[in-house]
Design brief:
The protein has about 425 residues and is an alpha+beta fold. It folds into four domains: about 10-55; about 75-155, no CATH class; about 175-295, no CATH class; about 305-400, Double Stranded RNA Binding Domain (2-Layer Sandwich). Helix content is about 50%, strand content about 10%. The protein is built from 15 helices and eight strands. The strands form two sheets. The chain has a five-stranded antiparallel sheet. Strands 6-7-8 form a three-stranded antiparallel sheet, with helices on one face. α9 packs antiparallel against α10 (about 225-245). The longest helix is centred in the middle third of the chain and has 30 residues, at about 165-195. Keywords: Mitochondrion, Transit peptide. It holds the Pfam family RF-1. One of its GO terms (molecular function) is translation release factor activity.
Length: about 425
């Protein structure tokens, strides 16, 4: 079954390039594209001889300035200061996206929202929030500053005045894109129904509906297992259609192998309305595709393991440490014991007992992840990434020093390979 072709716009290429260092499954979820299509397009954008590369980097909005250096990224504090004091801007039109370490997700609050959760004397959220926790800033519904993407439309690019003038055009384009996604979802669904047959396609729809319902349950502790089961069951439906093509209205549309079947599944999953669930399913589909293809899966962290409350022993003890009576008079220190593994964590980060309970559970999940996955746990992968980054930084520093000494004809340029001078 051939995939439906959808032309790549310049804006999509720019977004794909901005997110090029993220997992393919995450990019596919953001763009509403199939996994194989994203992987193929990204390879073209990295090929200087391709038309896609030339179109992207010949545009006026290329990713570097005329000197070949990235433009300086304006920090969040400067953007917030301008919104607050610029008379041409209305603060009510802006909102802040910040990382909440208790809920472990990015939340959105109005620019002038009062501070109700962060301790201290600050009365507003923008004054109380540490700058490193601010992830993005929105003008109405449009993101105008994004830390991860290094996007700044307030000071750089067209500027915030132009963004405000063209907001209606942007919203119309965004609505048109959503409508196109709905249309594409209908087209993909129609082709899948023609390939699988009505009975199997109906079963696939019910599976998709069930997994979305499961993901919405706050007490669900086995989402990853359910997602894995969903992908394998969906793959079984494609295999049944391939083994018995007589039940398919259009047998020529049936996927020829498991790899094609998983790619088709990724196309319909990428168009699901649940933005939190899409990357989770696509990550599992991506792993299955690489397994079928016989290639090693990229070193990317798995979802944190969930914890069954029945396996926990929770105790509350008297606080200790600096802070006087406000710390030592209340039993707000949380101690969690995971009975099956014997792992124990404690938390006394805040004066709020409920927040300490949430933080303790997050720490236990990280510790359990390290216990179960070892070198593939989030903590280990983060440490490996930091170590590799440090080695690259040292190598660049040694290279710069060597070039500088050679340029100055310094006899001390003869050094050992590890950067230490030879005596």
């Amino acid at each position: 079954m051939a995939n439906l072709y959808q032309e790549w716009s310049l804006e999509q290429d720019q977004m794909l390039w901005e997110y090029r260092n993220e997992p393919v499954s995450t990019i596919a979820a953001r763009l509403g594209r199939g996994l194989r299509g994203v992987e193929t397009r990204l390879a073209k954008l990295k090929d200087p001889s391709s038309n896609a590369y030339m179109r992207l980097f010949s545009d006026d909005r290329a990713l570097s300035d005329e000197n070949g250096k990235k433009p300086k990224f304006v920090p969040a504090s400067e953007v917030l200061r301008r919104i607050r004091w610029d008379a041409s801007l209305t603060s009510h039109d802006f909102s802040i996206l910040y990382y909440d370490r208790v809920e472990d997700e990015v939340l959105e609050v109005p620019f002038d929202a009062p501070n109700t959760s962060i301790k201290g004397k600050a009365t507003t959220m923008i004054d109380a929030l540490p700058e490193h926790r601010i992830k993005g800033i929105k003008y109405k519904e449009q993101v105008v500053w994004d830390r991860d993407r290094r996007l700044d439309l307030v000071f750089s690019g067209p500027g915030i005045a132009r963004v405000m003038e063209s907001y209606d055009e942007w919203k119309q384009a965004r609505d048109a894109e959503e409508e196109a996604n709905h249309k594409r979802q209908a087209e993909v669904s129609c082709r899948l129904q023609s390939a699988l047959g009505i009975e199997r396609f109906t079963e696939l729809k019910e599976l998709s509906r069930d997994i979305q319902t499961t993901a919405q349950r706050e007490d669900n502790m086995l989402l990853m297992m359910e997602v894995e089961k969903y992908v394998q069951t969906a793959l079984t439906l494609f295999r049944q259609a391939r083994e018995d093509p007589s039940t398919s209205p259009v047998p020529s549309l049936i996927a020829m192998n498991d790899y094609e079947a998983l790619d088709q599944l990724s196309e319909i999953v990428a168009l699901l309305p649940d933005t939190q669930l899409k990357p989770v399913i696509l990550t599992e589909v991506w792993r299955a595709m690489k397994k079928v293809e016989g290639k090693p899966v990229e070193n990317q962290p798995k979802e944190l393991p969930e914890i069954d409350e029945a396996d926990l022993v929770e105790t509350f003890v008297r606080g200790s440490g600096p802070g006087g009576q406000k710390v030592n008079k209340t039993s707000n220190r949380v101690s969690l014991l995971h009975v099956p593994t014997g792992l124990r964590v404690e938390c006394q980060d805040t004066r709020s007992l409920q927040q300490n309970r949430k933080i303790a559970r997050k720490r236990l999940r990280l510790k359990l992840d390290e216990y179960l996955n070892g070198s593939q746990s989030r903590t280990s992968l983060a440490a490996q990434k930091a170590a590799a980054k440090k080695l690259k930084s040292k190598a660049r520093s040694r290279s710069r020093q060597k070039l500088k000494r050679e340029a100055n004809n310094d006899p001390a340029s003869e050094t050992l390979e590890d950067g230490e001078p030879s005596f």
